[in-house]
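Protocol step 4 of 6.
Sequence for Endonuclease/exonuclease/phosphatase domain-containing protein (Didymodactylos carnosus) entered exactly as in the expression construct, tag removed. Do not edit the line below.
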Amino acid sequence: MISIRIQGTPTNLTIIQIYAPTTDAEEETIEKFYAELQQLIDETPRKDAILLIGDWNVKVGHKEEPGVV
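Step 5 output, structure tokens:
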């Protein structure tokens, strides 16, 4: 995970880019990832706009489509 803070007017922008562990990862790894993300958000000044982007490695729904990865 990485972040950059851009000073602007009327507000500053903090961009946080993440790559989340997959569901196959150890529970400890997943918990550590979310704890580090929360810490990074907590350390961002409250008046900053936050743009959180990245690969969340999530699946939406339970239906599988043939040929779709």
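Step 6, annotate. DSSP finds one helix and three strands in the chain.
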